[in-house]
Endoglin
Amino acid sequence: MDRRTLPPVVALLLAVCSLRPTSLAETVHCDLQPVDAKVTYVTSQVSKGCVAQVPNATLEVHVLFLESSRDLSELELTVQKSNQNGTQPREVLLVLSANKNILLRLQAPGIPLNLAFNPTLIFQGPPGINTTQLPPFTTQNQFLDWAKTKGPIVSVAELNDPQSVLLRLDQAPRAPSSCNLEPLMDMGHTLDWSPLTPTSVRGCRLEGVPGHKEAHIVRVLPGTEARPRTVTVKVELRCASGGPDAVLILQGPPYVSWLIDANHNMQIWTTGEYSFKIFPKENIRGFPLPDTPQGLLGEAWRLNASMVASF
């Protein structure tokens, strides 16, 4: 599983059981092919976006451009605000642009929310939300120009085939004072989202290795911003023949640490530091791993895995 554009914040691996780096890795033969396993993830990186800090505004504006490849899709959108210690939350305008028909299910508990959207969006949400039908704009600049007339823009994000979105209204302390769109933007704590289509998963059998030990490999490539982050990996192994002998190999940039939530005992092989969800403060130091697919296949071979069940 080699995700080249979206470094995940949360990866959920649903694997259906089946059947020394450098020179050793180069001799390993393992022909990666699509397999019947499912991997979904939540990420804070978007194709275009920005975040701004506007502490004195009485109304804050957030804009989402929803780009869908399907004629009709569904979107779960949750808007959250942290506890303000009894202070009155400021008003929020959420502007949604959808290029195709999207059925929106919205949750925004305790937030004075106003919603503006174009006709392709079908809204299903709780009562008490003020809604505005937007004019038939055709460009993103038209949407942004309209939004700027209502108040300062705090965040903008373009999402491709989103399935769920979590928008947090807390101010980003290190954000600039204005929102200027950037490609492949990491929205940080402001926004997390999950794509509608799971990422492709490949697997293969390692030639010459006996037994039934399987390897699951997750590789996270560097993002646009090298800041410390924790990747939560949730692993669910579902096997008709009982619990498998398995190894989990996690490779990423040095600033990535791992929080592992697994329903099965596994051998763990990671870069950076890792901890388990049941003991989140018990950090265990990993070690350098190869940063190529072939090198990671070599690691699986060194750990006596007979097959790579998911990559």
User: Anything to note?
Assistant: Residues 53 and 177 are 5 Å apart (CA to CA).
